Input
Amino acid sequence: MQERDILTAMQVFANTRRAFYRPRRRRTIRAVSRRQPSSAHKLAAAALLLVLPFCDPGMLIERPALPFGTTDELVVLVRNGPTTRFLGADGKFSGMEQDMLEIFAKDLGVRLRVIERSNFADILPALRRNIAHLAAAGLSAIDERRSGLIFGPAYLSVQKVVAYNTDEPRPRGVRDLVGKRGAVVAGSSSADQLKLERASIPDLRWDEVPVADSMTLLDQLSDGKYDFVMTDSNIVELAQNLSPNIGKAFILGGPETLAWALPSDTDPLLVNQVHDFFKRINANGSLRILLDRYYGHIERLNQADVFAFLERRTSLLPRYRDVFHEAQELTGIDWRLLAALGFQESHWDPFATSPTGVRGLMMLTSGTADRMGVSNRLDARQNIIAGARYLKILKDALPGRIDEPDRTWLALASYNVGFGHLEDARILAQRRGLNPDSWFDLRKTLPQLARSDFYTTVKRGFARGGEAVILTENIRNYFDILVRYEDPYRPLFSSLTPEARAEQ
Output
């Protein structure tokens, strides 16, 4: 290719980009559309096709968001991760930040449009260029970031933690990290903290990795690629439920708060709306419920529990995976939730039997087995299918106003304690001015069914409601692990209802 041709192609490409933004009269567009593309245009198009695959979507041509209030949308910079925004088992986006954004946009009466960044370090520079109205990405509101930004109210307090692989000796302080392989997310406050530490310990070294979230680095820590990873405490606590050989070595720096960030020239109206929003969800308990939804269950399992679960996931679960898939087809309940329930009940032992006479992999009572048409509770397939159908019956029996995920958590609790006792706990919640449709509130009243000053005031009397809380919280953890390691099941007749699939 001649140098002259290359320069011509580059010039055409530049002109094409300018033309893309410039308003043009309709007759000019018609005239261009009749013109045959020149060889230079073809060359420019080919060059563009070569460039596009290497560009981060949304960064090739980036324009500032229109001022808030001039359109019907709220534009937000986000990142993918278990503490921010992720694709849930139901195929919808979930996460602490995602849920808050959806509530905020609904309150404002606008459409939510998110711009997801694959590199954490790109988020704040993009926000300073007004690419979005705000950023909701698990951002620490530290002084070093306040140039050109406004931070909203804090919604969670965290600390910077040095995590290590428990297969190796635990580092006791920063000097123990010298000579070790470390990693942090590029652009994070953890990276800033390590730079401060290096001022007094020059030999301290680490990698700054351009990723969206430190969960990837913690996975690599578990696999032995790194000796330490520094990140926020809430992320380490989640990772410990997924990789039991991750431990907390020590804390560096003081407490930090997570908050939304806005450009410094943001309309004061939007700034005030953000402040009013957090004031409101603090006052009405919505923030507390969200924090419980994503963090309330993560400290239930100990290291031995996670080890046992991961070992049986590879040694036992494959024997029953197809049956759990079949159970999902019949009920519409995610097979991984059913498998988590089965593990909590019996550790996937088809011959399990309790002192009270419940039996099988899903631990069915004789009454439930008869109701579900089970002829042999020790037959794994019969037991799993019956347990799944029974859980669906319990979910369907709850009032239609109860939304997910509370609907599932309440059904799981009633699987253990019985639907009648669950209703008693809901009555106790009403008496205390709590929400009887909220798992967050029923966790408080279920244990009261074992106290005489409470169970004597309800219809069904005594129950070990505290056990139902522990069971449900454990299942939430096991389900989280399976969602991370096991693929969802897509039934052949996925467009049919569970009832229609049962008739196939």
Observations:
- The first strand starts at residue 73 and ends at 79.
